[in-house]
Amino acid sequence: MRKIFLPAILLTVAVQVKAQFGDDYLKAADKYYKTADYASAVVYYEKYLQAGTKSNANEYEPYEITISKKMAQHSNSHQAVYHLAESYRLLTNFEKAQPVYKQLLQAAPDITPLAYFHYAGVLRAQAMYAEAEQTFNIFLDKSKTGDAYTSAARRELQNLRFIQEQLASKDVKKYTVQKITGGREGASYAPAFTPENNLLFTATWADSTVAAKPRNRNHLFQGSYTGGAVDNITAVGWPASSWHEGTPAISNDGNTLYFTRWKMTGGKKAASIYKSTRAGGVWSEPVALNAIVNEAGCNAQQPVILGNGKYLLYASDRTGGFGGYDLWCAELNGNGEPVAATNLGDVINTPFNEEAPFYHTGSGSLVFTTNGRVGMGGYDLFYSAGEPGKWQQPTNFGYPVNSVKDDIYFTASNASKKLLENVFISSDRTAACCLELFHLSRSYTRYYTGQVVDCATRQPLTEATVTVTGTDGKAVTEIRSNEEGQYVIAAEEGMALNIKGSKAQYQPAQLTTSVNSSSDTIKNELLCLTAIPKQKQLFTESKLEVRNILFAFNDTAVAASDYEFLDQVAAYLKANPQAKIEIGAHTDGKGSVAYNLKLSANRAKACFKYLVTAGIGRERMIAKGYGECCPLEKEFTADKKDNPAAREKNRRIEIKLL
Question: Where does the record place its TPR repeats (predicted)?
Answer without folding.
Answer: 78-111
